[in-house]
Specification:
The protein is built from five helices and eight strands; from the N terminus they run βαββββαβαβαβα. It is of the alpha/beta class and 208 residues long. The strands form two sheets. It has a six-stranded parallel β-sheet with strand order 5-2-1-6-7-8. Strands 3-4 form a two-stranded antiparallel sheet. Helix 1 links the parallel strand 1 and strand 2. Helix 3 runs parallel beside helix 4. It binds zinc ion.
């Protein structure tokens, strides 16, 4: 069992990111059983849930003439426009039904502000609005954050980078995550993670 100062952060294991979902991540469903096994090795697990209002700024459908996967300049920077996904209280926003982490202590919902996206579980895409997760982890004595889930190159990577910037020791568990890989985003994410001092590891190292 991992120590009290270590947390498993499970990012966005939600129906809309699964094959057949509104914003499917290829092989996204393959993370579920790995995450379940990993979670049993941690006393402290936190889940995240992408959780948007229907009018959310990140949806291409909310911008006339725009199509999904284009980028658009927003007041806080460049935003990828996505298909409508993870709308609050819809089945697509629900956690995968086979995700089995009954001892998860916190589910942090992100992307709930209509005008700001939030890939990261720590800081929204304006890079200034905190979700409160860093304070929660500090208050509960966490020093090391193990990140996994969907998608490696967006919400997992951004969360890991922000965890590192907040002063935590951070690892990304590669085989407990799957990527979208849009325009080279996966290679870029691994490069950014390495440069930030985030450890890249496989689940077996934690399950041995
Ligand atoms: Zn989203």
């Amino acid at each position: 069992m991992k120590g009290a100062d270590e947390v498993l952060l499970v990012v966005d294991v939600q129906n809309d990111f699964m094959p057949g979902g509104a914003l499917a991540v290829a092989h996204g469903d393959e993370v579920v059983l790995v995450v379940n096994r990993l979670a049993r090795a941690f006393s402290h697990v936190v889940l995240t849930q992408d959780w948007h209002p229907a009018s959310h700024v990140s949806f291409a459908a909310n911008h006339a003439g725009r199509t999904p996967f284009e980028t658009m300049a927003l007041p806080y920077g460049e935003q990828v426009l996505w298909p409508v996904h993870c709308v609050q209280n819809t089945p697509g926003a629900a956690l995968h039904r086979d995700l089995d982490v009954p001892h998860a202590r916190l589910v942090i919902r992100k992307g709930h502000h209509v005008d700001v996206d939030s890939y990261s579980a720590f800081l929204e895409a304006d890079r200034t609005t905190p979700t409160g997760l860093a304070g929660y982890l500090r208050d509960t004595g966490v020093k090391r954050v193990y990140c996994c889930g969907l998608a490696t190159d967006y919400c997992v990577a951004w969360s890991a980078l922000d965890a590192r910037a907040a002063g935590f020791d951070v690892a990304v568990i590669e085989d407990a995550s799957r990527a979208i890989d849009l325009n080279g985003s996966l290679d870029a994410a691994w490069r950014d993670l390495r440069n930030a001092g985030v450890t890249r590891m496989q689940a077996a190292a934690l399950l041995a």
